[in-house]
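Practice set, problem 2.
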Amino acid sequence: MTKAVLGIIGGSGIYDLPGLENVREEVIASPWGVASAPLRIGTVAGLPVVFLARHDRGHRISPSDINYRANIDVLKRAGVTDLVSLSACGSFKEDLPPGTFVLVDQFVDRTHLRQNSFFGTGCVAHVSMAHPVSPRLRIHLAEAAAAEKIHLARNGTYVCIEGPQFSSLAESLTYKQLGYSVVGMTNMPEAKLAREAEICYATVAMVTDFDCWHPDHDAVTVQDVIKVLSANVERARRLVGRLARDFPREHEPCPIGSDRALDTALITAPEARDPALLKKLDAVAGRVLRG
């Protein structure tokens, strides 16, 4: 079996992962460009853990400027099998107030400026995104939250907007009426790229505000968000620590095939594939391309 390697992407407010042992920083070269930050590689209770600060330390990178392809590629090269995204978000539901953690199970992509696939002209592939979150990873996160007595909503739809501006009132009301749970700016195309890279993926969306639909939150400010972020960060660290301590040491095959998403995805005939693109796909798709 494959050894489990847990990846953690830290969003707003989470630029490090205390509790990592035997830590080393590593800059891994990627043919897709430069990742957000050096990887912090270590262990928690003997489990290999790889941490990446999505916005870099000091929150240097805007959501639209993140090189999502390079981030996922270097995590794949580091051996990550299971990836957890920790992401700040706004809420569209009264029963998901600031401070709530939401275990997202669906995404809606409203971004338009980002490179959202490793594949393209010269090697076309279509992976399924019907169920974008690995169910076993969600179960482990829910169990870790329960063990740490962290309130966590078990389901929710995350709509990803381009940003960096917050939603207009009309947009916020529309998303609320459509039944979405939370809004953020970073989990797409991250989840799509993780699926193409055959990495099991899950999101813990950490609510910082009610977005502007709410009469008490009609003008979301960075200062308001930061206040809640500070409280969320401590619980996020506890959640990740418990998850890592209890996580299976052998990678569990994903029941929805997240870790074998490319088995039936490649459509370009072998003789028509672009060698230059294939070279860039060595980490992401090497398993099927070499086969």
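Problem 2, part (b): a different protein.
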Amino acid sequence: MKILSYNLNGIRSAVNKGLIDYLKEENADVVCFQETKAQPDQIDSFLFMEAGYPYFYYHSAQKKGYSGVAILSKKGPDQIVVGMNDPTYDNEGRVLRADFGNLSILCVYVPSGSVGNARQDFKMAFLTDFFNFLQKLRKERPNLLICGDFNICHKAIDINHPERHQNVSGFLPEERAWFDQLIESGFIDSFRVFDQSPEKYSWWNYRSFARAKNLGWRIDYHLITDNLRDQLKAANIHSNAVHSDHCPVSAEIDF
């Protein structure tokens, strides 16, 4: 099973930039989108059906043009679960889960804290509650794959010039400590199982020609529960895709 995750920074914009053809080429079994920035009636699901995805599930934010996640799949999931059962976060369309047999795929869009102290506080509250949500979920669904935009660079290797970003949201000590805690609780960063090299990023600021200079951040992940380690077959960053300021990341599991 190949799972592709992609922060689109607007699904309608990405479609206009060739997203549908790209999905056909990648041919993933499951695709998870973040930051769709659209309501269901603003998305032409028929285009994705033509690309081979007859199953398309949305969790849009109440605020139009903001946030939102979606899951597409070639085969129908056994169950779809929307949100975290907490309207504080669910109103922003942040979490969507699809169950395939014993495997649960969780698509998450962690809030950004870059627009001010209030949103940084909101981000940290989300992280605490999301961690607790995951610990509870694991008791019910022990085989988890969490993918999406975490808005955190876990380690210095995951960001350009780490010395310049010590006090920047997305690389703050408390955010990285939260990521440490998540890994220590029994999750694996799938990409780093296969690739420990530097300068592998998944997001570049649109300003200052950051992508051309590869001044990026790795903030998009596939995390798997450690009991799935032997079934993990591949994990990649698809930096050639240019439909967004992010690029897709993928993981392959023999399941």
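Answer key, part (b): The first strand starts at residue 2 and ends at 7. The first helix runs from residue 11 to 16.
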